[in-house]
Amino acid sequence: MNENELTDKYLRHLNYLRLSITDRCNLRCIYCTPRELIPKLRHKAILRYEELLRIVRIGASLGITKVRVTGGEPLVRKGVCGFLAELSSIDQIADISLTTNGVLLEPHLEELWAAGIRRMNISLDTLDRKKFEKITGVDAFDAVWNGIQGALEAGFSPVKINTVALRGINDDELAALAKLSLDYPLHVRFIEHMPIGRAVMEDSHPLLAPEIRERIRALGELVPVQNGTSDGPAERYRLEGAPGEIGLIRPLSHHFCSRCNRLRLTASGMLRPCLLSDREEDLRTPLRKGLLDDDLKAVFLRAVRDKPRCHTLAEKDPVDVCAQMCAIGG
Length: 330
Ligand code: SAM
Fold this sequence. Notes:
Blueprint: E1 16-20, H1 49-62, E2 66-70, H2 80-88, E3 95-100, H3 105-114, E4 120-123, H4 129-136, H5 141-154, E5 159-165, H6 174-178, H7 180-183, E6 186-192, H8 209-216, E7 222-224, E8 235-239, E9 245-249, E10 262-265, E11 270-272, E12 281-282, H9 284-288, H10 293-305, H11 325-328
Parallel strand pairs: 1-2, 1-10, 2-3, 3-4, 4-5, 5-6, 6-9
Antiparallel strand pairs: 7-8, 8-9, 10-11, 11-12
Helix pairs in contact: 1-10, 3-5
Residues 25, 31-32, 70-71, 73, 99-101, 123, 162, 164, 191, 193-194, 196, 325-326, 329-330 line the site of S-adenosylmethionine.
């Protein structure tokens, strides 16, 4: 393996591939999925598991060592645990994780563990059952909460909670959500809301990290936790005596593009070098035309070459991102 093969022109080493394995989701979060019905990918447009595995193996031969499986909602796709087990058996992939909304988590926990998954991110924006339904369109708070508790009991670690900070929706609950890190070994991460796709909520005054910190201050001092070299973009903190952590993910107020090590693959097989740019490279067509591994490697290298230096979301005239978050996987 040549470690430098996935190094872009800004000298970022891209070793992290996020795989969206389906565009289907069992929730319809107001900030993620458009309210109107959007056409779903046809079955045959979605990459089959063996196609996904081939792409990961090719990525691994170029330097990918870390994979996150996401969606849509990954746990709605049939056979996902078998796929994860296959993924775990790829030697070069040292780190596999899952992002889920948690609705179907509890019944999958045993199988996920058997498939080699040890850590996961679970999305949760509120602790209020009624509000959960308002945000997601589904009355499933209890299922998610049971999934979180079940994951902790089963020994998954870390279990991270992804909370999108939404002004006027969950801003009154940020301290209560942060307090989960005092009560449980949970890593609660507040994500600034990114206005992309057609799910754009009315959000002319987004809730940014300084204000999020202000709102959770009542719980005590946030002591910085040193980031490891393979850590993601979250700024990490701990409340005194807490078994868990608090993280701030700041795509708007302090973007982390210069450290970005990610490539994304959409469920339809488009390789996306930047979450917040619609530039994509088609891997599915050459894959299905029967092209050789070297030709598919060339697609990876093109995507890396074209990775934008930086997104424009926080600028005065940001470039619109048309793709839906639910199709890219976050
Ligand atoms: N269904 C899974 C879930 O809910 O975790 C995986 C897909 S979801 C697109 C991945 C992550 O993206 C979730 O944590 C979600 O909260 C986050 N997300 C979606 N839309 C977002 C937005 N507009 N701004 C910030 N985060 C967003």
